[in-house]
Amino acid sequence: MSAVAKDSGSGDFQKVPPGTHIAVCNMVVMLGWQPTAYQGEDTGFKPQVYIRWETPHERIEYEVDGVKKEGPLCIGKTYTLSLNEKANLRKDLEGWRSKAFDKEELEGFDIDNVLGTCCQVIVTHRESASGRTYANVTGIAGFPKSMDRMKAENALISYAEDNTKQFDKLNEWLQKKINSQSMPSIDENVKEEEKEITGPEPGDVFDDDIPF
């Protein structure tokens, strides 16, 4: 089990422009139990996942060890790991696949299924009180049927506590967030949260017209 809803949100880096963009998911990262808040009120600890996309039509030039390179801009989003009917993750996944989850899928969905799949991301820019501009993914839609699906240019990364081999490939801010996670006391609410997303049963078959 692995995946996000905010941009990395720090530093003066080139941001994905506002608007709707073709995108490919290249990263799913389990962040563990993180403190959450709603409208300024502490809502306790919840498991979170970070999902990142690259936008092949928005490019950036950069330098590695003195060598100039070029690649797609990336943007990510952090989600509570839940498929509750009000959860942002469920809303975005259903927009991505252009189909609602059925009852059986809600019993167990492997979030790693989104890795390498295409979609459209809606990006909105927001300016904070300090004057810093943030790029946020505010919506996801299915990939146009008239277009050929693309492959990710970056290596696909999946990180979870039971699959830590790719930890060193994560951005430093993600590593710090994972290392700072806290485990809440286990109660009935936590148990229900954990049941929201699990791995699919062996032999599960999904509609070929749906990306995951």
User: Helix tally?
Assistant: 4
Q: How much of the residues is beta strand, in percent?
A: 35-45%
Q: Share of helix among residues?
A: 10-25%
- Number of E strands: 6
**Structure classification:** mainly beta
Give the topology string: H per helix, E per strand: EEEHHEEEHH
Radius of gyration: 17 Å
The number of distinct structural domains comes to 1
Detail the poorly predicted runs: 1-12, 188-208
The best one-word shape is globular
Give the averaged pLDDT, no decimals: 84
How far is the first residue's CA from the last residue's CA? 15 Å
Largest sheet geometry: 6 strands, mixed
Describe this structure in words.
- With 212 residues, the chain is mainly beta.
- Helices cover 15% and strands 38% of the residues.
- It contains four helices and six strands, in the order βββααβββαα.
- Strands 1, 2, 3, 4, 5 and 6 form a six-stranded mixed sheet that branches.
- The longest helix is centred in the middle third of the chain and has 10 residues, at 88-97.
- Residues 1-12 and 188-208 have low confidence and may be disordered.
